[in-house]
Design a protein that fits this description.
alpha+beta, membrane, Type II secretion system protein N
Length: 265
């Protein structure tokens, strides 16, 4: 009797192992189109697919967000490559190395998503046109943005933590028909679990110092959703040049500072 029980247990163990191997083999052979179908739900469109679910590429990738207040946000990401890490499944999460390349634009980093619904982006290196700032605010911008994000943690569409730095070169903002030229600025991002989340931009000569703070950050179909309290400090020469333009943008003058409460989107 005991021998029969042992044989049954052994049989089911080997059967379960066989099923796991079969599932792993099927996933390994799964086409890249399986990943494309999953990504389409988030607005990521992949074309010209090659490779497999685990390691593949797309000749063209574009991110399309839902229109908001007449703004249709579509961003070309260029050629996209991904490499999933099978060993990460042992810790009940899926991790992948991702890279997207386009002229004057690149994205590289590691993405992990757990069964609990948490997504961790680490070691991100981004280079993109300043026009991508439209994801965060309804503004037209020119220049080049370079970001080094050490870690960004998301729960669903909510940003839990963020840390990183960057630089914006030759930044210019459009105000009606004119442009405000801000030059080169250094960027710093920080935010622990629960906030507050802070961002600062400081020009090379420190004549421009901008700080913003928010208690909560989230991504919606129309881009970043948050309420920002911002403070802009300018040198006297810049105040004389930009005072009227900043008023049109919604800033309120307070001495040598300009304040603005901004709801996004």
């Amino acid at each position: 009797m005991a021998t029969a029980v042992k044989l049954n247990v052994s049989y089911w163990r080997w059967s379960l192992a066989g099923v796991c191997v079969l599932l792993g083999w099927l996933l390994w052979l799964a086409p890249a189109s399986l990943l494309a179908s999953a990504a389409a739900g988030g607005g990521l469109q992949l074309q010209g697919l090659s490779g497999s679910f685990w390691a593949g590429s797309a000749e063209s990738a574009r991110l399309q967000l839902a229109p908001h207040q007449g703004r249709q946000l579509v961003f070309d990401l260029g050629e996209l490559d991904w490499q999933l890490e099978p060993a990460s499944l042992l810790s009940l999460q899926a991790c992948a190395q991702v890279q997207a390349l386009l002229k004057a634009q690149q994205f590289k980093g590691r993405v992990c998503h757990s069964l609990a619904g948490t997504t961790v982006l680490s070691g991100l290196r981004l280079q993109m046109p300043a026009s991508f700032l439209r994801l965060m605010a309804p503004i037209e911008a020119a220049g080049q943005v370079m970001l080094a994000l050490d870690e960004v943690t998301l729960s669903g569409n909510r940003i839990d933590t963020i840390s990183g730095s960057g630089r914006i070169e030759q930044l210019a903002l459009q105000v009606e028909r004119d442009w405000l030229h801000l030059g080169n600025l250094d960027l710093l991002l920080a935010g622990p679990v629960g906030g507050p989340y802070t961002a600062s931009l400081i020009s090379d000569d420190q004549a421009i110092q901008w700080q913003a703070q928010s208690d909560q950050l989230a991504f919606g179909l129309a881009g970043l959703e948050t309420r920002l309290s911002s403070r802009l400090r300018l040198s006297e020469s810049y105040r004389l040049q930009w005072g009227n333009g900043l008023a049109l943008l919604g800033f309120e003058a307070r001495g040598d500072e300009y304040l603005m409460e901004l709801q996004l989107p």
